[in-house]
Design brief:
Helices cover about 35% and strands about 20% of the residues. It is of the alpha/beta class. It has a single domain, classed as Rossmann fold, CATH 3.40.50.360. A five-stranded parallel beta sheet has the order 2-1-3-4-5, sandwiched between helices. Helix 1 crosses helix 6. The longest helix is centred in the first third of the chain and has 15 residues. It is globular.
Length: about 180
């Protein structure tokens, strides 16, 4: 089975996307995958400064938690990004991390499948489209990788509200079981 890395990007206490990611992780482990979870809570991730030194060295000139996260991304078969939807887009901290994964572009990265789990107050089908498009744009830069799927759980607002959403928790669990 695959080595799966789940990166939860919400900084909120009792985050709904974190809670659903826990169910996804449970499903992935039950399917036989080796799963590692990284939360961006408490992490220092500086903004990319666009120097592009990483394209020659495959190392970032900035020293923070993004460097270690990039190594874990590089060495995983499957990536799952969990994000709340803010203003119809991925969280800012997720976008900042994606920018900081630029050293991986010229590297011999291992990941082939990339997934997204997202939550939002709104429940309309179009709500995650821009976030999915943003992650798809990142994936498109990695020729050996593909965006393999997305699960959106809308209609969840208050902190911890996902705990009472059995259908959504089951969807996340099943999504995790179906990871490749």
């Amino acid at each position: 089975m695959s080595k799966v890395l789940v990166i939860t990007t919400s900084l909120r206490t009792k985050s709904n996307s974190d809670r659903l990611a826990e169910e996804l992780i449970r499903g992935a482990r039950e399917a036989g995958h080796e799963v590692e979870h990284i939360s961006l809570k408490g992490k220092e991730i500086k903004f990319c400064i666009g120097c592009l030194a990483c394209q020659k060295t495959q190392k970032c000139v900035l020293k923070d938690d993004a460097v270690e996260i990039a190594e874990k991304v590089k060495d995983s078969d499957t990536l799952v990004f969990a994000t709340p939807i803010y203003y119809y887009e991925m969280s800012g901290q997720m976008k900042t991390l994606l920018d900081r994964l630029n050293p991986l572009y010229p590297s011999d990265y291992r990941f082939r499948k990339v997934y997204m789990l997202s939550t939002a107050t709104e429940d309309e089908e179009y709500v995650p489209e821009k976030a999915v498009s943003g992650l798809q744009g990142w994936v498109d830069c990695f020729e050996k990788a593909e965006f393999a799927g997305s699960l959106f759980c809308g209609g969840i607002n208050d902190a911890g509200e996902a705990d009472g959403k059995s259908d959504e928790k089951n969807e996340a669990y099943q999504f995790g079981k179906g990871l490749e």
